[in-house]
């Protein structure tokens, strides 16, 4: 049964990676795919650490995942305020 969960979670992680690589037009879609990858990794770590009965690492990982999401949303809001949209084509690092 654990092998089934490994395959399913690997498919989730790979589909999140594929979505992250293929959807490069909007910042919001890339942030959502990154959050999907983090959530898939959280479930994978949960199933692995469930057998070791050491679930404290999950709280650290969840904290870093939440901080990553908040940082991404902050970047998205500042980008929309400064440029008016979340297209990568309108955003250049050379412009101030």
TrEMBL record:
Alphabetical UniProt keywords: Electron transport, Membrane, Mitochondrion, Mitochondrion inner membrane, NAD, Respiratory chain, Translocase, Transmembrane, Transmembrane helix, Transport, Ubiquinone
Enzyme Commission number: 7.1.1.2
Membrane topology listed for this record: Multi-pass membrane protein
GO cellular component: mitochondrial inner membrane; NADH dehydrogenase complex
Segments traversing the membrane: 6-22, 34-52, 58-80
Record bears the keyword Translocase: yes
Domain of life: Eukaryota
Reactions this protein catalyses: a ubiquinone + NADH + 5 H(+)(in) = a ubiquinol + NAD(+) + 4 H(+)(out)
Record carries keyword Transmembrane: yes
Gene Ontology terms, MF aspect: NADH dehydrogenase (ubiquinone) activity; oxidoreductase activity, acting on NAD(P)H
Listed GO biological process terms: ATP synthesis coupled electron transport
Compartments reported by the entry: Mitochondrion inner membrane; Mitochondrion membrane
Family stated for the protein in its record: Belongs to the complex I subunit 4L family.
General function of this protein: Core subunit of the mitochondrial membrane respiratory chain NADH dehydrogenase (Complex I) which catalyzes electron transfer from NADH through the respiratory chain, using ubiquinone as an electron acceptor.
Protein name (database record): NADH-ubiquinone oxidoreductase chain 4L
Organism: Pantala flavescens
């Amino acid at each position: 049964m654990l092998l089934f969960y490994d395959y399913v979670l690997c498919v989730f992680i790979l589909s999140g990676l594929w979505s992250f690589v293929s959807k490069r037009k909007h910042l919001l879609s890339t942030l959502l795919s990154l959050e999907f990858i983090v959530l898939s990794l959280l479930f994978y770590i949960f199933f692995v650490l469930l057998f070791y009965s050491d679930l404290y690492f999950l709280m650290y990982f969840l904290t870093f995942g939440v901080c990553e999401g908040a940082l991404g949303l902050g970047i998205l809001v500042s980008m929309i305020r400064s440029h008016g949209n979340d297209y990568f084509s309108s955003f250049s690092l050379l412009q101030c």
